[in-house]
Amino acid sequence: MADTDPTGTNINQPSQRTEDPQAQREQRRETRRNQTYKAFLRNLMVIGSMNEEEAERAAVSVLCVLEQRLFGEEVAHLEAQLPGKLQDLLIRCERHVGKPASKFGRNGFIQMVSEDLEVDSLEAERKIRAVFTAVRDQVSEGEIEDVIGQLPHDLRALWQRTI
Fold it and tell me: pTM for the complete prediction?
């Protein structure tokens, strides 16, 4: 006598997969995207002593402002090494809509993040440093050097690792 579940299905037979291989690959890809993004956020949460919502807002704010400062293909090169879900959030950032890159220094950078996150300048700087440290952990050192190379000296100092 076969064992059956409440629907009458034989539970001793291996289940047949109804999904096609393409759907399975897509599901695995999406799972990896989620895991990579969550790992980035967890790292940022630890570095910056933030909850998940704060970490996501800080990452998007800081990276959107950073991308406004970068010229040429550097934005695409940086984004290519970030988690896919974070790339999606940056694409939807309203700051990217048709605005060319512009030059500003440390104070301007901190002010934009401060206004965006509605925090004072000291808290904005703390969050910027935390995001930059988390990005350093995610992106190749060569890419970090390329990004830093486009920034003025006072803004480069924010990339120093937090302790």
Answer: 0.78
